[in-house]
């Protein structure tokens, strides 16, 4: 495993292979990582989305910090240091497969957009920075229960949207995380009207016991 200390300041990296790298220092500021592979990587002191000043002197503008985005990246068996500073970071369609995410007490507000957690004990994680999400067990049973309600809906488009969304949710939960998943209203079907989506999510939560720590 090679050692490295790096700073990415408003950089764009595409399909870069970082596998088996031990980052003794990792600072990403206002950057984009697209299709990069961090498999087997160890982060000792990472600033995944730094909120400090960039090399060129760019600072907080009083409203938002420059965001760092990881898109279509792979974090397989990746080791994150405890209390990793995520900062202003966005993960899109990334895969966390067998990664170590223990002791993450430094939390942040986030929205997960097609992020997959594979073979991770979700019950051992803390997700206080994810408003609207809840950790649920028995996903297959919950989906079967709410689908019986959906079958009575008049709009075929809505029925089809929910069936497709829940089929994907059940498949991934059973294959990757012992029929558990971190679920939000969006998992009921992104194309559903917001009020209908919230109603269905509420029914999905009530179906059986949930494993959310709160």
Automatic annotation (TrEMBL):
<protein>
    <submittedName>
        <fullName>Pentapeptide repeat-containing protein</fullName>
    </submittedName>
</protein>
<dbReference type="InterPro" id="IPR001646">
    <property type="entry name" value="5peptide_repeat"/>
</dbReference>
<dbReference type="Pfam" id="PF00805">
    <property type="entry name" value="Pentapeptide"/>
</dbReference>
């Amino acid at each position: 495993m090679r050692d490295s200390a790096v700073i990415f300041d408003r950089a764009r990296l595409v399909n870069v292979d970082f596998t088996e790298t031990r980052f003794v220092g990792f600072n990403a500021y206002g950057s984009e990582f697209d299709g990069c592979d961090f498999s087997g990587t160890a982060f000792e002191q990472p600033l995944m989305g730094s909120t400090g000043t960039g090399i060129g002197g760019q600072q907080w503008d009083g409203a938002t910090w420059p965001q760092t985005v990881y898109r279509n990246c792979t974090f397989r068996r990746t080791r994150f240091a405890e209390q990793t500073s995520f900062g202003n970071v966005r993960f899109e369609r990334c895969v966390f497969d067998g990664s170590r995410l223990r002791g993450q007490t430094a939390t942040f507000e986030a929205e997960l957009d097609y992020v997959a957690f594979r073979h991770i004990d979700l019950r051992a994680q803390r997700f206080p920075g994810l408003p609207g999400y809840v950790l649920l067990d028995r996903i297959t049973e919950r989906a079967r229960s709410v689908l019986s309600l959906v079958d009575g809906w008049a709009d075929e488009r809505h029925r089809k949207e929910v069936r497709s969304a829940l089929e994907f949710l059940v498949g991934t939960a059973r294959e990757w995380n012992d029929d558990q998943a971190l679920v939000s209203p969006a998992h009921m079907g992104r194309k559903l009207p917001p009020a209908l989506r919230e109603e269905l999510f509420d029914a999905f939560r009530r179906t059986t016991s949930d494993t959310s720590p709160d």
